[in-house]
Design brief:
The chain is of the alpha/beta class. 40% of the residues lie in helices and 19% in strands. The protein contains 15 helices and 13 strands. It has a 7-stranded mixed sheet, with helices on both faces. Strands 9-10-13-12 form a 4-stranded antiparallel sheet. Helix 1 packs across helix 12 and helix 13 packs parallel to helix 15. The longest helix has 22 residues. The chain is globular.
Length: 341
């Protein structure tokens, strides 16, 4: 069975295992206060041209999302997101469990616009019952989105401008950040991100690490006492150097971008083959998640040799499926799927 279900079906790049094995008998200070985390943070700040940003390592994406959002919001505030946003529909109400409502906006392709965000902010601000309505205090977007689409630099700039105008934080979920940055459709450079948001995180779990995410805080107001929130929300690892070693390895020798570029090369090969065979897409593919529409009978046939998820019924004869490539996808797996198609 060849698996296209997700980008975290494999363990990690071999260099991380080598680095972990080499460090196994080291004695390190815990909770992310070790030399490996310090070095990894320095490499990340250098890569994103963000010398004044602060970097924190958390164990997973849900912990990163709920920690950043709960830390940045006042008790009566909520977070704006797309209806399809991960925090709204794929984290079992983790954000709501912290006492903050997800203020979900409709979206056809996983993105939301600056105009939508401004309208929602103004609707609350000028409502006669404004103090009885959850106040927007943060905007959450994903790059790439949950549907495999991307924001352009201009779109991010417009969203950022609205957030600055109304004193609202902008948080970018980068669980698959490397794949977005390496997409041919992308015009956002690594050095742009710290200027376009208050906080973002770099996905390790889905991009070559065993586990872990790196939260990069660009707004000093958000960094104050952030470690308290990491601990309180279950994101702090006692053996924090295990996270530091992984990100130290990913951001040495440009590995993060190299492995992300491989995933995108595999995705682009599959996308082109699907286009050549006249398949249609549920969402225009731009990253490593490909949502393609197929006949139900063909889907059943493919499932005898390939694993993947479905993403909604299109009509009585057709369903959308999701095919995901990763840093670990062998080209022969792509070739076998193309041959089966």
């Amino acid at each position: 069975m060849i698996n296209f279900e997700s980008d975290y079906t494999e363990g990690c790049i071999p260099e991380i295992l080598d680095a972990l094995a080499k460090a196994q008998k080291e004695q390190n200070t815990g909770y992310g206060m070790d030399p490996h985390c310090e070095h990894a943070a320095a490499l990340i700040k250098e890569f994103f041209h963000a010398p004044d940003s602060d970097v924190h390592f958390l164990v997973g994406g849900t912990q990163a999302n709920m920690t950043v959002i709960a830390h940045g919001l006042k008790p009566y505030q909520g977070v704006i997101c797309a209806q399809s946003g991960h925090i709204n529909c794929h984290e079992t109400g983790a954000v709501e469990a912290t006492g903050h409502k997800c203020l979900a906006l409709p979206s056809k392709d996983g993105t939301i616009t600056a105009d939508q965000i401004e309208q929602l902010i103004l609707e609350q601000k000028y409502n006669e019952s404004y103090e009885h309505i959850v106040q927007p205090g943060m905007v959450y977007i994903s790059f790439p989105t949950e549907t495999g689409t991307l924001y352009t630099k201009d779109e991010l700039q417009s969203i950022h401008d609205v957030c600055v105008k109304y004193g609202v934080y902008l948080f970018i979920d980068g669980a698959r950040l490397g794949y977005g940055l390496c997409s041919r459709a992308n015009d956002v450079k690594p050095e742009d991100l710290p200027k376009l948001c208050d906080v973002f995180y770099i996905g390790g779990t889905k991009v070559g690490a065993l586990f872990g995410e790196a939260v990069v805080i660009n707004n000093k107001a958000l960094n104050k006492d952030f470690r308290y929130s990491i601990k309180q929300h279950g994101g702090m690892l006692a053996k924090g150097w295990l996270l530091g070693i992984q990100f130290e390895t990913l951001f040495s020798n440009n590995r993060y971008m190299k492995i992300s570029a491989h995933a995108m090369a595999m995705a682009e090969k599959l996308i082109q083959a699907l286009k050549d065979k006249h398949y249609t897409f549920q969402f225009e593919p731009a990253a490593n998640q490909i949502f393609v529409i197929m006949e139900n009978a063909q889907i059943n046939d493919l499932r005898t040799a390939f694993a993947f998820h479905t993403n909604g019924v299109i009509d009585k004869d057709h369903t959308a499926i999701r095919l995901v490539t990763s840093w670990a996808t062998p080209e022969e797996n792509i070739d076998q799927l193309i041959k089966a198609l």
